[in-house]
């Protein structure tokens, strides 16, 4: 069998424990307890689940805890299947591929106070941030946790609640609190962040409209649509030898579209200099962008990792 | 005018001028994506790679292991490039971040393709220059692809194995 590229970080589930109603904490570690790729407080990772689903979860441990990734997963019976698969099928000893961590809070000098607003299980990234700030003492912080009744991850949050650094607001008593007084006045030394249901994020965005954008951070349960180069246009790649047509979405690389379409393309640098993905083109108007092909070579070849198309259709010698 | 086709003449000239460098840092990692860990010594195995490293032939745990390459048993990087990145591009890159195994000082890596040299106890043969890749930008989060073009290190195969220590000499093999 032809070897496939390694595209994920290999981890083993080292611990699974209950953490409140319908919530489980999963710890993932390298098989040899090697350090895992570093992350920022509150970053998230994609989990490649045994059933083929790929789901994104926030890390709730802190960056200094660098030999494991800890995620808190609430079982959503009516969800899309990721949380059910984790709760029902994943156990200690299972191997899971994960992505490199992305996102998280940028701890910048000059910010002396953070105010976090979390709704329910949206507390997970802020648990990471709170632990990080508590350990490093880089800045003061308050976490407002808005829940219907029961506090998720109560054991993990217990000491922070006792210290008054986590303030719990129960909506079944008095409804959702007004967010404006919780976050206070805008100031260059304060950064505010929110993670929760869409309606809470809408409220949060409303009360922070006058804040400088750099001082406002939002974590969404559902990823916003990807930012696409406004000049990028979709096009069709026609493979002359197989007669297949493959659509390249606006902003997608031709390489990604070909690979998604099952075409096996050799790659290496993915930046247009190594030449591994050189492919002949027959018809169309390629936009080259590589840095190795001569003008003469560009009349016949392109690099699919960086090349685009200035026409609706590009015919490749594949 | 310099006759650039006379490779033997150039090589002989380089030998006469000579150079001696030093091993400054050693790093390895057992699997793709994981951070490189610093070591005081590493063990090179002839014809295979570094004990415990992802690209040791037989391990096949590296990001590029699906593309077998005999000449990628050990990789080297110039300390001077890290200094140049800081000086010219304002980018701080640590020796654990460039993801090559051996950081050397005083060794003209780009001149060594096709040549043999000693790295501590080990005898290496340089097979090709390394090229930068987007993978390293993904891991480090630093825009280093462009500044590393033509100075991204050296791939070598191990002709004679042995222990390599930080502080060991790097010298031309006759």
What does it look like?
The complex is a heterodimer of chains A (318) and B (174). Chain A is α/β, with parallel strands linked by helices. Chain A has 3 domains: 9-98, Elongation Factor Tu (Ef-tu), domain 3, CATH 2.40.30.10; 113-220, Nucleotide-binding domain of ferredoxin-NADP reductase (FNR) module (Rossmann fold, 3-Layer(aba) Sandwich), CATH 3.40.50.80; 235-316, Roll (Ubiquitin-like (UB roll)). Chain A has helices at residues 82-89, 124-136, 154-162, 171-174, 179-183, 198-207, 254-260, 295-298, and strands spanning 9-18, 23-29, 44-48, 54-58, 69-74, 95-98, 113-119, 140-147, 166-170, 190-196, 216-220, 235-239, 244-248, 278-283, 286-287, 301-303, 308-309, 313-316. Chain B has helices at 7-17, 79-89, 134-140; strands spanning 20-28, 37-39, 41-45, 49-50, 74-78, 102-105, 116-119, 122-129, 154-160, 162-165, 169-172. Chain B is globular and about 40 Å long. Chain B starts with 6 loop residues before the first helix and ends with a strand. The chains are: A alpha/beta (318), B alpha+beta (174). The A-B interface holds A 2-6, 8-10, 30, 32, 34-38, 100, 266, 268-271, 273-274, 291 and B 29-35, 37, 60-68, 131-135, 138-139, 145, 149.
State the helix count of chain B.
Answer: 3
CA-based gyration radius of chain B: 16 Å
Structural class of chain A: alpha/beta
C-alpha end-to-end distance of chain A: 22 Å
> How many structural domains can be distinguished in the coordinates of chain B?
1
Which percent range describes the beta-strand content of chain B? 25-35%
Low-confidence stretches of chain B: none
- Could you name the ranges of chain A where pLDDT drops below 50 across 5 or more consecutive residues? none
CATH superfamily of chain B: PK beta-barrel domain-like
Give the CA-CA distance, first to last residue of chain B. 28 Å
CATH architecture of the largest domain in chain A: 3-Layer(aba) Sandwich
Major sheet size, sense and barrel closure of chain B: 7 strands, mixed, barrel
Mean pLDDT of chain A: 90
Global outline of chain B: globular
Oligomeric category: heterodimer
Annotated CATH topology of chain B: M1 Pyruvate Kinase, Domain 3
SSE pattern of chain B, N- to C-terminal: HEEEEEHEEEHEEE
General form of chain A? elongated
């Amino acid at each position: 069998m032809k070897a496939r590229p390694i595209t994920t970080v290999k981890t083993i589930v080292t611990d699974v424990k209950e953490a409140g109603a319908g919530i489980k904490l999963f710890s993932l570690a390298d098989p040899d307890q090697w350090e895992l790729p570093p992350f920022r407080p509150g970053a998230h990772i994609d989990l490649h689940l045994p059933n083929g689903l790929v789901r994104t979860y926030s890390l709730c441990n802190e960056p200094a805890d660098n030999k494991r990734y800890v995620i808190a997963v609430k079982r959503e019976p009516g969800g899309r299947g990721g949380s059910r698969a984790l709760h029902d099928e994943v156990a200690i000893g299972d191997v899971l591929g994960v992505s490199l961590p992305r996102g998280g809070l940028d701890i910048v000098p000059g910010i002396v106070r953070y105010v976090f607003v979390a709704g329910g299980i949206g507390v997970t990234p802020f648990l990471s941030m709170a632990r990080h700030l508590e350990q490093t003492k880089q800045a003061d912080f308050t976490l407002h946790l808005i829940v219907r009744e029961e506090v998720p991850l109560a054991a993990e949050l217990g000491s922070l609640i006792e210290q008054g650094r986590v303030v719990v607001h129960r909506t079944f008593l008095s409804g959702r609190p007004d967010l404006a007084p919780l976050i206070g006045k805008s100031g260059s030394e304060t950064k505010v962040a929110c993670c929760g249901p869409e309606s809470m994020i809408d409220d949060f965005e409303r009360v922070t409209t006058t804040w400088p954008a750099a001082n406002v951070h939002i974590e969404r349960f559902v990823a916003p649509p990807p930012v696409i180069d406004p000049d990028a246009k979709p096009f069709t790649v026609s493979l002359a030898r197989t007669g297949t047509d493959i659509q390249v979405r606006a902003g997608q690389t031709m390489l990604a579209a070909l690979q998604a379409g099952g075409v096996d393309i050799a790659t290496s640098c993915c930046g247009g200099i190594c030449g591994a993905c050189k492919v002949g083109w027959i018809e169309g108007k390629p936009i080259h962008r590589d840095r190795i092909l001569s003008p003469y070579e560009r009349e016949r070849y392109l690099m699919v990792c960086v090349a685009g198309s200035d026409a609706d259709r590009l015919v490749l010698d594949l | 005018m310099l006759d650039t086709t006379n490779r033997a003449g150039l090589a002989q000239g380089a030998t006469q001028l000579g150079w001696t460098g030093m091993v400054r840092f050693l790093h390895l990692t057992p699997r793709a994506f994981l951070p490189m860990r610093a070591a005081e010594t590493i063990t090179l195995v002839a014809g295979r790679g570094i004990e415990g490293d992802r690209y040791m032939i037989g391990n096949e745990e590296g990001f590029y292991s699906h593309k077998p390459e005999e000449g990628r048993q050990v990789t080297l990087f110039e300390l001077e490039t890290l200094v140049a990145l800081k000086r010219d591009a304002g980018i701080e890159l640590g020796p654990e971040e460039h993801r090559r195994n051996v950081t050397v000082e005083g060794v003209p890596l780009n001149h060594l393709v096709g040549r043999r040299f000693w790295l501590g106890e080990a005898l290496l043969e340089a097979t090709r220059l390394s090229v930068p890749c987007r993978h390293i930008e993904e891991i480090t989060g630093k825009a280093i692809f462009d500044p590393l073009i033509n100075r991204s290190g050296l791939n070598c195969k191990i002709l004679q194995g042995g222990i390599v220590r930080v502080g060991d000499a790097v010298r031309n093999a006759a």
